[in-house]
Amino acid sequence: MTDPTSIPHYKPAKIEPKWQARWESDGLYHADIDPNKKKFYALTMLPYPSGDLHIGHWYAMTPSDARARFKQMQGYNVFFPIGFDAFGLPAENAAIKRGIHPQKWTYGNIENMRRQLKAMGAMFDWRSDLISADPKYYRWTQWFFEQFYNNGLAYQKEAPVDFCPNCNTTLAREQVHGEDRHCERCDTPVIKKNLKQWFFRTTNYAEELLDFSGLDWPDMIKVLQTNWIGRSKGASVTFHTEDGNPLEVFTTRPDTLWGVTFMVLAPEHPLVDKITTDAQAQAVKDYQEQAKRQSDIQREATDREKTGIFTGAYAVNPVNDERIPIWIADYVLMTYGTGAIMAVPGHDQRDFEFARQYELQIRVVIQPAGSEPLSPDEMTEAVEAKGQMVNSGPLSGTPAEKTFDAAVAFIEKKTAGKASINYRLRDWLISRQRYWGAPIPIIYCPECGVVPVPEDQLPVLLPDDVEWLPTGESPLKLHPTWRFTSCPVCGAPSERETDTMDTFMCSSWYHLRYLSPDYDKGPFDPKKYDHWMPIDTYTGGSEHATMHLIYTRFFHKASRDCGITKGNEPMLQLRNQGMVLGEDGDKMSKSRGNVIAPDDFVKRYGADTVRAYLIFFARWEIGGPWNSSGIEGTARWLRRVWSIVLEKEPGKPSPTVLRGLRRKVHQTLKQVSYDYEHFEFNTIISSLMELQNEMSRAKSAGAFGSKEWEEAVDIYLRMLAPVCPHISEELWERLGKPYSVHQQAWPQVDEDAAREDEITLIVQVNGKLRDRLTVLPSISEEEAKAAALASVKIQNFLEGKAPRKVIYVPGRLINIVL
Question: Hey, which residues does 85 pair with through a beta bridge?
Fold first, then answer.
């Protein structure tokens, strides 16, 4: 036996930088087009350069890297790029608070994070590294905007923003604090203000976004997107005010039109100022100002008291010509539907509560089967709208299953409305009144109107010489020269658009720029697009379900319709990781002081140990609280792997030992292969730990030096390599094997070797365990049933009677039903 002191110590601090440098020098992970290999585009969501990688970044990226490595060993040509989503509000806040330009702050953070990412030992192809704040990147972000504009997919309209009247600036959602909604900088109450802003027509793609055909995405994400898009079948109905103004509403229940007793408009509805009477004008104005200070979430809360103001105006119900009052109320939003509702208090609880609050008429027009008719005075809540129509003029008596179609036919005949589909999804507001973003490439000419910047003048660069005010106002609006330009059409003095684009615009297409980050004839090289797209596996957090993951799907489809991309979807498979919590069980945040930085653990244990522990300590899709003491067990395991591979211990094993070793090796290989493929990462480590224990026992029994031992070590290191790339590479080299372990083929399972010599069958009687049988794995169903029925224990339960049924689950159990 080799003296343990004679083998070199496992020193990750020395081994890991050595191999990282070698891999980069050799271009081991450079993915070029190879017609002889099947491509695999693996992608993990790009990080925001906030300053340091925390353990949550590692938790997202390490398993993604391990699976990319696994696919490479399976023979795929794997492309696994990385970059930085660099625009955004945190950089502006840093500029204001620290007096540092956001570009300097951002790029300084990127340099630090690059170092941390390389220390992880991931197989990123660094040639594709990109920064979304680089002009060579946002040139093409602006180019995409112009393609959408030229194809009618980008447009302007007025929309409300959160606004601080003291700072005289718009605020991002995260800059509005507290239930009273005050500015984070000056504590002034925040109001809503209408600004002319740019939108993308995401609603044009609502129906297509509901189609997940061909996508291997988690059901939860599909449900979240489906609910966010919010498809509703109903009818568009046009009411008219008494002075002739049309007032359109969407309703999912046209069969309740005869129950409409008042209308409600959002306080911001453009019709409000037109129809409000002089007597109600001041009260309406005061209410509108009050509504401006509330968020949509506050306004929609079902548990808050309903408030509203009568406009003094009336509308006419098109189905019965009744005169109905028009109110405004903050629970109706301009951002949903038409910003107006027909109120049916007899069958809608929110309308019921509003009607009771303001003593408005309530009428029941749907009678649930088997219930007694209620008078409005007796009602304590709205009546469920399931049943036949009553009090509905010519449609009274229409049975429940026909009410919708009958009502639609009635309003269509009267030309008062038609069947319609409505979506909760709104068009994407991309305007941001910020500096640190991609400038919107639009010029406003007093003669020509809205003019896109000519393509050969892109990118519209951000000015460097900007002044930061403590109020947070965009320096682009205040810059003495930047916003002034000439019209590219007529040459007249003009002004640039001072809004920048939502950072989700940058992250909607970054996967395309990865393909060819230095390509200057378009946003990507078409040859590389044709080879690598679509993305085969995309990984990241489920919190992006209703924003980034919808935006990037829309972006791909819109680009397809502009003739830029191909196919219907950008990402075929999606998998989401859970969240690593602090040791206190709370979400990690700097304010709580519970953020775990990986650098200290890497310095103490090495990257491979940190990688293995992150993969082992929790189910990847669930996550859990970090436990600093738990990593010690993972460190001991890797030290044992080091020793068991390098220590020599000759002996003479029995055939039984060798057969048992091979069986365990190939059983583990089968399980680990499945786990890598199906993202079951934590059981990969537990399986490798179990196999290491079996190998240790076999080695002690003399297996070292046998061909079975050599096979076991060879397969073990290949299985370990995706998770722990450095120690696997080092041991592979020390065994004299050809460089690199990461270029070796994934081993094949020997099913005969993996098969047990004997298996145990559970025998149940009426579902309860009554006996166990030790049998050959090859036993047939008839033989298994016969053996179970012949068992003395089972005979005692049968009492000479024939069973009603005998159920056999191959290799597992027999259930005898009496």
Answer: none
